[in-house]
Amino acid sequence: MFVVWKGKRLICVLSVLIAVQLALGGFLIARNLPAKKTNLIDFTVVIDAGHGGIDGGVVGVDGVKEASLNLAYSKELGAIFERAGFNVVYTRKNEGGLYGLPTKGFKLRDMQERKRIIEETHPNMMISIHMNKFSADTRSGPQVFYQQGERDGQSLAENLQKVFNDFTGINREAIAGDYYVCRETSCPAVIVECGFLSNPEECAALQRSDYRNRICNLIFNGIMLFLYTG
Ligand SMILES: [Zn+2]
Q: Which of 16, 80, 99, 204 is disulfide-compatible with 106, CB 3.0–4.6 A?
């Protein structure tokens, strides 16, 4: 029984690795990305935990800080990518901001430092993690944003939003706009707002480890969908 189970697990793991490999090969060829080898160790994703330090982001109905949740979600998402064989680079791995001294102009310096890390990395993809807030406390569910006019960013965002919509049952569209971290990034880039901290139920759920794991796995699934279908 154990041998059978182990065999099935091995087949399952191999299938996933082959599928990911095929998807990446297709993705790199389809998008005419730099002539890197098309194996997993050459696919790099930057995970950007929004805010940090004196910039806590939005505050939840129970006082939870967006910046802390962004960090927890980024680490969880990064671990999923690493288990799948991707290279992962984080813009921040602790609660601190990226602006140096907390003096005037810190927000711009923070954003510029994120840009510097992304440029230096030359990633294949950039995912920026945030939490949302709205005046009505009933609004819920993840929302994806992309840079207006960026075709691959739009496709990535739409695939992610589709996976989220299937999960929540809410029919929401990915939103285009002008976002520094996406505009200044040459690879497919999106901002994922994982949920609304203004919604008491969702605010509580977003702080649960099982929900965090679920959302991060959905992000990973959305990226796989993008790599397969473009
Ligand atoms: Zn934010």
A: 99
Distance of CA 162 to the CA centre of its chain: 15
Contacts of 176 (CB under 8 A, 6+ apart): 145, 146, 147, 148, 149, 154
Superfamily of 2-229 according to CATH = Zn-dependent exopeptidases (3.40.630.40)
Q: Which residue has the tokens 């029984």?
A: 1
Distance 126 CA to ligand 1 centre (A): 16
Report residue 103 as tokens. Answer: 């003096």
Provide the b/e sequence for 138-173 (b: ≥16 CB within 10 Å).
Answer: ebbbbbbbbbeebebbbbbbbbbbbbbbebeeeeee
Tens of pLDDT along 161-195? 999 999 999 999 999 999 999 999 999 999 999 99
The domain locations on the chain are: 2-229
CA 129 – ligand 1 centroid, Å: 8
pLDDT tens readout for residues 130-160:
999 999 999 999 999 999 999 999 999 999 9
